[in-house]
Design brief:
Order of helices and strands of chain A: HEEEEHEEEEEEHEEHEEEEE
Number of helices of chain A: 4
Number of strands of chain A: 17
Radius of gyration of chain A: 18 Å
Structural class of chain A: mainly beta
Oligomer: homodimer
Helix content of chain A: 10-25%
Strand content of chain A: 35-45%
Largest sheet of chain A: 14 strands, antiparallel
Amino acid sequence: MSEFDEAIRLEQGDSPTTRTGTFTEDWMIGNAVNGGIVMAAGLTALGQHLAADPTETTRHVDPVVVSAYFMTAATPGGFTASTEVMRTGRRLSTGQVSLLQEVDGDAVERMRAIASFGNLDAVVSDRQSPPPDLPPPDECLSSDDAPPDFLQHSRFLDRVEIRLDPETAGWAMGRPSMRGIIQGWLRLRDGREPDTTMLALALDAFPPVAFDLGLYGWTPTLEFTGHIRRRPARGWLRVVLTTENLGGGMLEEDARIWDSTGSLVAQSRQLCGVRPAG
Amino acid sequence: MSEFDEAIRLEQGDSPTTRTGTFTEDWMIGNAVNGGIVMAAGLTALGQHLAADPTETTRHVDPVVVSAYFMTAATPGGFTASTEVMRTGRRLSTGQVSLLQEVDGDAVERMRAIASFGNLDAVVSDRQSPPPDLPPPDECLSSDDAPPDFLQHSRFLDRVEIRLDPETAGWAMGRPSMRGIIQGWLRLRDGREPDTTMLALALDAFPPVAFDLGLYGWTPTLEFTGHIRRRPARGWLRVVLTTENLGGGMLEEDARIWDSTGSLVAQSRQLCGVRPAG
């Protein structure tokens, strides 16, 4: 089983609406479990609930849209995903998931999301923006070249391989472009190919676009909404992050992902807090 | 009281978590109550609940981010908004709202949203995209010039005044630009000035961007996420809609709004279904 599938593996809980799993230190970034993994685990729980719902007969196996609100930072250890089916329809089925962890005997909500599932088999793109022009992965900046003390606190990067376009990686050498763009390649290190659930992780896996504005502090995700529009082809994903509105201690981060065939497969926007560095 | 404030006026329900109101035909567009009004009513209910919450001491009066899922079309008549406070924090407070209408004795959920409130008083913009270059409102295409049988089914346009940049309104004469952009001006006809709750309406008030791709059918909003980033100044709002991904019977619609001082005050993205024209 791949590292990603292991991370989002769930067991049926005490009721049809609860499932349990375990976050490990392997997916930490800084002091928290990566938000993309938290979302992917929540989506998996909701997808399993939908698949088991007797009114769901349409094989809505692909997450199509998810809106997640992050309330507290997830930490290594057990978690419970509590789900509710809100509506099963012909094209989409919609539900809600709360992801909770026990802290000092209390169930603390880490994330709550509403999401719709559909079936993205054989989607044809009628019109889409072309992928960015990137140097090949081997000519990009590897996360392996990051300072060892940074990597030590980012075990996430042992699982997810990121190669940054040198044109948008000046911030790593203290020279942010101030344009608000970071782009590059992404894949899972163990060779697990992308699918629609993995795209939810990939949309929230790159370094924060705030770095390219010279903001090196913590930029917690307050809200994240992702649209998964196609099943991705095998191979490297191309990721572009942009932002155009910084103020009031917040900025938005837009992500777009194209697959190896050049299809735009996913888009997201998140609202981030901007906290001072150090 | 302004037409907008009347539309979102609520009364306390049977419990601290329920409030009731009434949708009228005045805000219909086609066969449904406009989704922006549904959202604004839901946000108002959640804001009132937060303001009444004993743990809420930080005056989080402005909706900052809202993710709304539309399950069934709202119709004229009474509604109930059922709210839950999820978390009150220093910077943001977050909660959930379900908007229900009774149909044949059953409570049917029209919309469910998660939203965070904050305080946008005295926000300074550090960096933002400039507003679009638009002809003055008097040189734009007025919704008053639309065909009478169209206006008859869009009483919404008796409340909301829209002036479209002729450069992006060719679709109204059967000549869509196929670029996927619609831009123009917006204000409330009765002179009610914009505020952060009104921006939620304004983000979902323009003709669908799908029209500029020659798609004149119904494009129901499946999911809508809006970010309100500043309190808007008095006067006309500038609205720009774009899209870059159409496929699988869905497209995304991005909206951006600048106020009369040229500040970027709100952004949104919605996932729309694409249904064939009548």
